[in-house]
Amino acid sequence: MAPLRKRSVVDGAAVVILVLIVAAVAAAPWLAPFPPDDQNLAARLAPPSATHWLGTDHLGRDTLSRLLDGGRFSLVVAALATVLTGIIGLVVGVLSARRKGWVDELFTRTNDVLLALPEMVVALFIVAAMGTGFTSLLVALTVTGWTPFARLARTLAYDVSARGFVEAARVVGCSPSFIVFRHIIPHLAAPMLGQATLRFGQLLISVGALSYLGLGVQPPQSDWGSMVAAAQPYAERAPWGIIAPGLTIFLVALCVTLIGQRTSRRAADPVDVLVVEGRHA
Predict the structure, then answer these.
(1) 89, 152 in Cβ contact below 8 A?
(2) CB 35 within 8 Å of CB 28
(3) Tens digit of pLDDT for each residue in 91-139?
(4) Are residues 152 and 93 in contact, defined by beta-carbon separation less than 8 angstroms?
(5) Which keywords does this Swiss-Prot/TrEMBL entry list (predicted)?
(6) How many whole angstroms separate alpha carbon 64 and alpha carbon 70?
């Protein structure tokens, strides 16, 4: 019981931290103490103080203000990429499992090809071809990120399709689309949600990595990855410029991953979780 209580406390803390960060980023225009692009060369590389809680960067811009402002880009791109890859993966996986034949063969071969290529290399190629910016990042992450969802959806759809209630629905004359939307997709919802929360953290790190390489937003707009890159030359003199965005990326990815693991555990055996946690009636 003690390990389970400890795990529940950790999961609860992850939810609280994530909510606070997301709320702060959403309220950036009202919470930011300074305009994110307001330069003050007289205060460049200033350490954390009562005026600048997280210090300033090499142009004297307030780090906290830029952290809150840049978080909107990082979180929105990662969230949209997660939603798009989840939808594409769900459609492809269910279609592959239901149609079988050449459709399933095409999915399997496409999946094998994408798995053989490093995601970041493919993403770099797509962004380089399309140019930097929001759209190219979103396309790159979507193209490279749908296969885990599709594999999971295909496996689960095969399993659900073999169950008696699906066969009974087919026998009584239910249409294939009705069976998919009424009997198959609802059984995939919880596992796919768990996969999405786990995938979000990976996509957020990918957004930061691409922005760090200069393939994300362009100055003067900021995001967490570009903040790390801009602060790197001054790491010894002003380490807070790297610590603040780097730690934020780490915390968000960690919190979402912990929440995703809990969601996956519940999806795997919800009755057992409720009994162990003492919530069984």
Answers:
(1) yes
(2) no
(3) 988 888 887 778 888 888 887 787 778 888 888 888 888 887 888 889 9
(4) yes
(5) Cell membrane, Membrane, Transmembrane, Transmembrane helix, Transport
(6) 10
